[in-house]
Amino acid sequence: MTLAETPAGLRILHLSDTHLFSDGSLHYGRVDTLAALERTLARAAALDAIDAVVATGDLSDDGGEESYRLLASRLAPFAADRGAELVYAMGNHDLRTGFEAVLGARETVTLRPGFRIVTLDTSVPGAGYGALDSAQLERLAEILAVPAPHGTVVALHHPPVPAASALLAALELSNPEALLDVCAAGDVRLIVGGHYHHALAASARGIPVVVAPAVANSSDPIAPAGTERAVTGSGFAVIDLPVAGDPQALFLPAPGPEDGVEIFDLDAAEVERIAAAAGSGA
Fold this sequence. Notes:
Low-confidence stretches: 1-6
Mean pLDDT: 95
Number of helices: 7
Order of helices and strands: EHEHEHEEHEHHEEEEEEEEH
Radius of gyration: 17 Å
Strand order of the largest sheet: 4-5-6-7-9-8
CATH topology: Purple Acid Phosphatase, chain A, domain 2
Number of strands: 14
Number of domains: 1
Shape: globular
Distance between the termini: 47 Å
């Protein structure tokens, strides 16, 4: 079977962290994120068979409505041409007003024959870390109380698994165990997220967790301890979730002319300053 063939199950094109701007600004003064998204979709176009396009947050960098319109103008026709569902989740850079005005509800349930995709909004206004309140967790438990024939995929921005760097560790989901309690008690077979700007495959409570690389840039998960480094480079994940059995995730680059060029290299003091301002303090 090639990647252009539909597997028996659910195939997800998993995108994250597009960081689009309403006014065409460059990310960190260097990266044209709209061009990065277009390059990523061109690379993913070989995937004629896709069941769902799932974008897990930090879709906008400035939260403006125009940035969400730009995103939808690229993703909606891409998904429609392939008969795929289109699912958006909120990130910490997204703003609720702009997101809802253009993309719709911040938490959704999407059905694909036999499968269910549930989005959760882990954003905390004005902060970089993530959290889920009791009402959100109760709503998720109510949804999961009725199992889907082939199980549920939970899509969110802040993954419920540890980050690799000091800064992202300060900006993690603050209550992952509470989420995993609900997921483990239900029919959740896969959790997909973003936020870390690098590919990651993990397991939590026996549930596979896939973190997609970012479209906007790539963080360095093996930068010296206490520091944070990012370079140019875009990527995406392709996840095949079979009717039964474990998912398979492929992480693919979308090559660009400046891949690998350093965007920033923050020392420990700067990391601590940002963590204090945007983290949970936990």
